Amino acid sequence: MKRIAVLGSTGSIGTQCLDVVARLTDRIRVIALAAHRDHERLWQQAHQFGVRHVALADEQAASALRLRQPDWHVYAGDEGLQAIATLPEVDTVVVGVAGGLWTGGDGCCVACR
After folding, report:
1. Considering the domain boundaries, does residue 57 fall inside one?
2. Is pLDDT larger for residue 85 or for residue 103?
3. Which CATH number goes with the domain that contains 50?
4. Model confidence over 41-57: pLDDT tens digits?
5. Tally of structural domains, the chain
6. Is 23 helix (H, G, I), strand (E, B) or coil?
7. pLDDT score recorded for residue 78
8. pTM of the entire structure?
9. Mean pLDDT, to the nearest integer, of 61-76?
10. Quick check: is 69 in a domain?
11. Residue 71 pLDDT > 90, yes or no?
12. For residue 39, what pLDDT is reported?
């Protein structure tokens, strides 16, 4: 079973990826999801796929989700994306975030496995 994290799960690439995953649940398991600020859609996706590790770039959105799901691991900002992308239980990271978002302070993209 391939274990994935989807960065940008609420956007076009992310939702298409999750549509494919929904048809391949015997071969792919979603471990973590990340989005920019749409915490409602991220919450729905996490429930659909049984995900308990989520990240939001927007700190306020992350705070709202923490209140709603205190038993989840909710990360925020650039550090949140790095945490999701480097979880030891993740085999593959699908990156569907807009260029320029969630980059390191030096402008380099977060290193993903």
Report:
1. yes
2. 85
3. 3.40.50.720
4. 999 999 999 999 999 99
5. 1
6. helix
7. 85
8. 0.88
9. 97
10. yes
11. yes
12. 96
- Has residue 103 been placed in a domain? no
Find the helix packing angle between 77-85 and 59-68, rounded to 10°.
60
Q: Give CA–CA dist 71/19, Å, rounded.
A: 26
Residue 87: count of CB within 10 angstroms of its CB: 16
Host domain of residue 69: 2-95
Rounded to 5°, the CA angle 17-23-26 comes to 110
Q: Can you tell me the distance from the alpha carbon of 81 to that of 65, in angstroms, rounded to the nearest whole number?
A: 15
Q: Which has the closest alpha carbon to 77: 50, 110, 52?
A: 110
DSSP 54: E
35 in a structural domain = yes
Instruction: Please tell me the distance from the alpha carbon of residue 6 to that of residue 36, in angstroms, as a whole number.
Output: 12
Please give the mean pLDDT across all residues of the chain: 89
Integer Cα distance of 95 and 34 in angstroms: 10
Nearest-5° angle of CA 39, CA 84, CA 21?
A: 75
d(CA 53, CA 26): 20
Looking at per-residue pLDDT, the higher value among 5 and 101 belongs to: 5
Q: Which of 56, 45, 58 is nearest to 4 (CA)?
A: 45
